[in-house]
Write a structure and sequence with these properties.
The chain is mainly alpha-helical and about 220 residues long. Helices cover about 65% and strands about 5% of the residues. α2 packs parallel to α6 and α3 packs antiparallel against α4. The termini are far apart.
Length: about 220
Amino acid sequence: MYMGDRDFEQACIAFNAAFKSYDEAGDSSRLRALKYNVMATMLSNSTINPFDSQEAAPYKNDPEIVVMTNLVSSFQANDIKKFDGILKKKEGIVLMEDEFLQTYIGDLLRTIRTAVLLSVIEPYKRCSLEFLGEELNYVDVSEIESILVAEILKGAVVGKIDQVENVLIMEGNVTPASENMEEILTTLTKLSTITSTFNNNLAKGRDAAIGVGGFL
């Protein structure tokens, strides 16, 4: 239910609970529940590795699970070449014969491609979609454009796509609040200094005028 609704965080909780229940009962279904939990974890973009848990750790090298172990490791490292390589190997192909996992492989690829794309474009003001496609392990330019449009609409990317030149043009980032505050404090300090200097000069001028008046 949660997976169908794309509520992957709740799906993680549900699959994790199912895995623990099957594990305690010694039911072989625990491995299937664990695989689904790993899939939901990646789809939710969680930084938590399911195999770090005390219950799941003993199964990380199980022949039926090791592919998922390697997938989640490369996913969380944003290593898209290794990730794609695992899926193309025999073990990955066999894994994806599971109809349930197969349903969400498109979502999973989109998720890691988005994460890697956001990381790649960060230092650039301008870059070609072809270059980005190469960085994402030779993904088609149309897929790159689709991801960028979605992220621009979400506000995750501040920029625009030149569809004639097939180029992403970044329009700058919002200045962090801390930097704005530093600028304000600097300006106030300068104003305070100017005001103090003005007042001192005014006082000196007044004292000079009084002194001259005393001689008249």
